[in-house]
């Protein structure tokens, strides 16, 4: 039986995230998410997704190939700090 907590990630690894963004800041956040991805060497742009039922939030799908542990720690943190991002899943 393997210990789930001791599993190490093998790099490169595919990472898929979803940014939940305040709708009124969606255009600026989309551009900033794209710039943040490029800064980490990711050239696939964020993809605009669904709008929340009341129109307050918009989702953006983010995909990246994670090269190493430092990128795994830094990229999600940097994306979460983009102005307008409410949460990163």
Provide key terms for this protein.
Alpha-Beta Plaits, 89 residues, four-stranded antiparallel beta sheet, 4 strands, 29% helix, single chain, 2 helices, alpha+beta
Listing every helix as H and every strand as E from the N terminus to the C terminus, the arrangement reads EHEEHE
The level 1 CATH classification is Alpha Beta
SSE-based structural type: alpha+beta
Characterize the main sheet: 4 strands, antiparallel
Describe what you observe in this structure:
This protein has 89 residues and is of the alpha+beta class. The chain has a single domain (9-88), classed as 2-Layer Sandwich (Alpha-Beta Plaits), CATH 3.30.70. It has helices at 26-39, 69-80, and strands at residues 13-22, 47-51, 57-66, 85-88. The protein has a four-stranded antiparallel β-sheet.
